Amino acid sequence: MTDSYEDVLTRFEPVIGLETHVELATASKLFCGCATAFGAEPNTQVCPTCLGLPGSLPVTNRAAIEYTMRIGLALHCTVASWCRFARKNYFYPDMPKDFQISQYDEPLCIEGYLDVEVGSDEGARTVRVPIERVHLEEDTGKSLHVGGATGRIAGATHSLVDYNRAGIPLVEIVTKPVEGAGAEVAKAYVTELRDLLRGLGVSDVRMEQGSLRCDVNVSLRRPGEPYGTRTETKNLNSLRSVERSVRFEVERQAALLEAGVRIVQETRHFEESSGSTASGRSKEEAQDYRYFPEPDLVPLAPAPDWVAEIRSSLPEPPSAARRRLAAEHGFSGLDMAQMGGAGVLDLVAATVAAGAPAAEARSWWLSYLAQQANERGTDPAELPITPAQLAEVIGLVGAGTLTNKLARSVVDGVLAGEGEPAEVIAGRGLAVVSDDGALGAAVDAAIAGAPDVAEKVRAGKVAAAGALVGAVMKATRGQADAARVRELVMAKLSPAE
Ligand code: ADP
Ligand code: MG
Ligand code: ZN
User: Fold this and answer.
1) Domain range for residue 477?
2) Quick check: CB of 418 below 6 Å from ligand 1?
3) b/e string for 252-284 if b means 16 or more Cβ within 10 A?
4) Chosen domain end from 396, 428, 460
5) Which ligand is nearest to the CA of 249?
6) Residues 223 and 354 in one domain
7) 234 lines ligand 1 (CB under 6 A)
8) Structural domain total, the chain
9) Could you report the per-residue pLDDT of 346-402, keeping only the tens digit for each?
């Protein structure tokens, strides 16, 4: 019988370590000029360099180096004054050169930290997660296993390889072991890191599309003992999976340790449906990648002024933005906890920063958009609408161009990929009708259609006007400016002077 996670924590101390991969949002790849857009036709964004054809030579993308330094500096790391790329040799079908250009013992950024907050209200505390390194490497291609039921290689009849992703710049952020940290800290760390990266503008950080993915190492020890043997759960692609996989590993490892069974050092895969992890590749014997300095690239030696310039242009970190949000907009501790719990705090802050009133920004993210995310089984941050787009829609409601109902329809259109808010409004014909000519005709028709109601209003029963306003709203499919309709109804039915 497996003890519950909470029980296990009374006897064992978990230690976690996270390795996070972030695809950078540079326009072109790391060592060639190919485009990096997501979702393009397979093998249309490739060239001899990223296909690893003989005779091709890599040239480093300056923006990728800059983005990596932005990340490192935002994580309080030291930027190396001189470092090199390394070849990591291994065979994999979606890696065309049979080696990956990565960084090994000379990463671009080292030794930093990220503070994360866990618990709410009275139980709130800050955990400092130490960062070991931030390095830059090229992403691999993607294999597609066809003909089976599951999309996995087992049972497939054949496999296809798409090299569009090969060579996209990928930053790996590795933490040191975090002592006494479990599922809650793991999730809080990935959330904070994602918000930080979004604020830096270096990646679109969409976990479902794979632009942010995470491996979580977990081990248990009894208090005072050295670290236990760890397992590494690979490729987690949602915040929820990060949390669930750690909980599962802690419970699984505790049951083995209590039974006197030793933990095997291995990679594991998380199964979304069962919430459990399954054994992958054993890591008992370290694989020999035969690393050596990449001979086709010059070393990196970022000039001190360049580093200083990046440091001075870093945006406000999300934790400070949150504090300012609470202070400037009068959000209570409860509001903040509610937004934090729903994973929308940073989104609300960004929407406010883009010009929306705080109360509206909060209400959109907490209600309509949280509900949309929920229906899609995703995180609000994964929704394909940006805070700036939402702020624009909110602005149009404020200006009377959209009603709340029309605004939801505009948001639906943006979420459905119909373009920017203005394009959705034009495409769906959503602007509010406040033009008196068009409304006047509709008001006349409503009065003509309900003479008894009109008579009551004329006799001073103002409340009866609601039925006429309702009729006009119905006739205009909700696109009329209701306040203006009421004014017109009252003007037309006021006793003649
Ligand atoms: P690998 O090359 O196998 O990925 P690393 O040395 O890069 O190994 O470590 C991977 C991650 O595991 C790092 O985040 C590190 O802090 C963490 N880690 C190392 N030892 C332990 C341990 N005993 N328990 C939990 N995490 C650990
Ligand atoms: Mg690793
Ligand atoms: Zn290319």
Assistant:
1) 436-492
2) no
3) bbbeebeeeeebebbbbbbeeeeebbeeeeeee
4) 428
5) 1
6) no
7) no
8) 3
9) 899 889 988 999 999 999 999 999 999 988 888 888 899 999 999 999 998 888 788
Q: Which residues of 115-124 are buried (b: 16+ CB within 10 A; e: fewer)?
A: ebebeeeeee
Is residue 393 in a domain? yes
Residues 335, 296 share a domain: no
Residue 302 lies in a domain: yes
Q: Is the CB of 219 under 6 A from ligand 1?
A: yes
Last residue of a domain, one of 284, 310, 336: 310
| C-alpha span between 131 and 107 (Å, rounded) | 12
Q: What is the distance in A from the centroid of ligand 2 to the CA of 19?
A: 6
Please give the radius of gyration of the chain, using alpha carbons only, rounded to the nearest integer.
28
Q: Is the CB of 216 under 6 A from ligand 1?
A: no
- Nearest alpha carbon, ligand 1 atom 12: 17
Summarised one tens digit per residue, pLDDT across range 114-145 is: 999 888 666 778 999 999 999 999 999 999 99
What is the number of the ligand closest to the CA of 286? 1
**CB neighbours of residue 6 within 10 Å:** 8
Beta carbon of 30 within 6 Å of any ligand 1 atom:
no
Give yes or no for residue 177 CB within 6 A of ligand 1. yes
